[in-house]
Amino acid sequence: MDVDAIVKKMTLEEKARAVEGVGFWWTQEYPELEVPAIQVSDGPHGVRKMYFKIPGEPDMATITAVCFPAACATACSFDPELMEDMGHTLGKECQAEDVGVLLGPAVNIKRSPLCGRNFEYVSEDPYVAGKMSAALIRGVQAEGVGTSIKHFAANSQEFERMYCSAEVDERTLREIYLPAFETAIKESNPWTVMCSYNKINGVYSSENPWLLNQVLREEWGYDGLVMSDWGAVANRIAGIAAGLDLEMPGSNGVNVESICKAVQDGTLSEEALDKAVTNVLRLVDRFVSSRQEEKFVREVDHAKAVEVERESIVLLKNENKVLPLSGEEKVALVGGFAERPRYQGGGSSHIESFRVVSALSLAERYGTFTYNRGFSEAEDVYDETLQQEALEAARDADKIVVFAGLPEVFESEGYDREHMQLPACQNRMIDQLIETGKPVIVVLHNGSPVELPWADRVAGIVEAYLGGEGVGEAVMDVLYGRVNPSGKLAESFPIKLSDNPSFLNFPGSEHKVNYAEGIFVGYRYYDTKQMDVRFPFGYGLSYTDFRYSNLRVSRESFTAEEGVTVSVDVTNIGDRAGKEVVQLYVADRTGSTRRPVHELKGFCKLALEPGETKAAQFVLDKRAFAWYDVEQGDWYAANGAYTIEVGSSSRDIQYTVEVRIIGSKDKPPVIDMDVQLGELLASPYTREYTLERMKKYMDHFRPTTSESEEMMEAVVRFMPLHSLRSFMYITNEELEEICEDLKKHVEEQMK
Ligand code: BGC
Q1: Sheet holding 640-649, edge to edge
Q2: What's the whole-model pTM score?
Q3: Any alpha helices (H) in 396-470, and if so which ranges?
Q4: For 376, which DSSP code?
Q5: Which of 160, 228, 413 to mutate to test the pocket of ligand 1 (most atoms within 8 A of CB)?
Q6: Which of 45, 412, 454, 532 is deepest in the core (most CB within 10 A)?
Q7: Predicted pLDDT at 617
Q8: How does pLDDT run across 278-322, given as a tens digit for each residue?
Q9: How confident is the model at residue 153 (pLDDT cuts 50, 70, 90)?
Q10: Residue 704: what pLDDT?
């Protein structure tokens, strides 16, 4: 398709029409220009393609497809290869169904456990979210199908999601809320990006030139298409100028008229419109030219969905090796989720699932069991009869497995949760089961952390998250040891909601939500604050044990540009094969700014046979050490010491090694009348000069009483230049002269 030639041929009206969707899921077609329409479809964990029941009539239906585990689960696999593989499968399904863009992955950061859409999002950590979604995108797009990474950006809640303004400082945006997008864009170049509904610092994402043109396109070099979230456009003209190419699902022609008018009266440049049209046509061309024959064999893909969940389940507690079950013992299965698992969330990602497998439907294959519903999985209603029946059966069993979780209505796109608790009827059931004295194992089906008041009193906890249509089989495989669990939490489980750093500022008021905790999100907060959590970030058990040894670095001091390679050996010291997610955190010891106590900068999943040893390798570049310095408008890795930590969770660091960055430009202090003496004395750019230049005035400032020199120095540290008029008998003229001289001195050295 000669896109440029087509754009030249198009009338203004045709162009204005090309930049909005039609029929909810399609782009416009122009048969006379040989431009076909392409269809987009949700996403992210299955193909939710919609079609017209009767062509020409408005009624739509959804195809039956395979529901893969949601991102809350797949994130725990910490396995980019698995994500890529799942991407291939999804891409092939899209080809088979003639879907040109799969609307995902969704990478918004899990700021609060209450966000209704956390189940669709990857992590509280931008590094994990970036790497896992980059892999998924690679897989889908290798099949000649586009993706739409969403929701760009700072859409970490559902409350007033289409209106409220996320008030976030730039450093926090750059370090926490943007990097998952940045990584995926730089590593996997998604064909499209979907902007979010909300405003950022007062400006809608759909018309934010800083976000769409400056950061995304100019700084990150993105050359694909930006589409709106469905109905996210407020001012279409401002949107086109800001870099929003395609309005979805469209405006029913309303904006076609306003675009034409704006171009005619000069409010919108035709060049900006042409850019948007070009991006739309390029997208169409991309898909059309990569069409391939595919079959969608649901049975085969269903097996893949089971496999992905097996790799994602997290074993959170296993006291006295209560798991795996042997198959010999009498097991009491309790809880409605055993029969009707909760395996996906509500809203746009909801799949018409092909085959939902419950644990109960397979239980016979695994051992002797009884089943009692105990409580309803659909609502929080206490039912005495159900509970008593379950208790009776449980008293007679060797072990009890409770299938607990959040009812469907508790978490969905469109609204947030109101609290972090499980339904009271479930907690009550679990408490009573514990009282039987039999070991209790709880399997959880939830899209986001829940409070676990009984965690210390049960023997086992298995986190299945929303594990896709094959969840029942994967859970039974883990319970009975056919699969050795290897998932790790991609988010922290706080003990209670009020421990969460966003607690006082979620979901905001007066149509604003203040991200006041800044960069201290998730473990960055809990670990820095040394706060107890129920389960830390990166945590997960295995049926085998691993030993770490021999941590080594390629060099101990290096420039930020050179970076460093780190490796550590991991040995499976148990008697069954298993997988370990090795994590690398970096702790900044330079004191160049306020930072979290450590941040994840690498992970690596190793499969190990009993007795086997493998090395986990990490390559750390400048970004692994840097923070975003708003003053310099760039990433900055200060000279000095950093600790590299390697371990199996953010709270289980096995080895550390100290390294040094050298050769970075030190930051000179900003020189004006407010600069403090301490800053001048601390900086190599100004220290000697200040001492020399200020000597005679400092002499006026001698300790008169019992203060030591040391105390005086400490006090002087926080005196700005302007205050020296009062303390050091300096005239205003002299001070201004010193200030000017210091500026020149710094400028000369910076050359
Ligand atoms: C959601 C998007 C989704 C779109 C299309 C919106 O409401 O926020 O994630 O892709 O609808 O269904």
Answers
A1: 557-559, 652-662, 640-649, 578-588, 599-608
A2: 0.96
A3: 424-435
A4: -
A5: 413
A6: 45
A7: 98
A8: 999 999 999 999 999 999 999 999 999 999 999 999 999 999 999
A9: very high
A10: 62
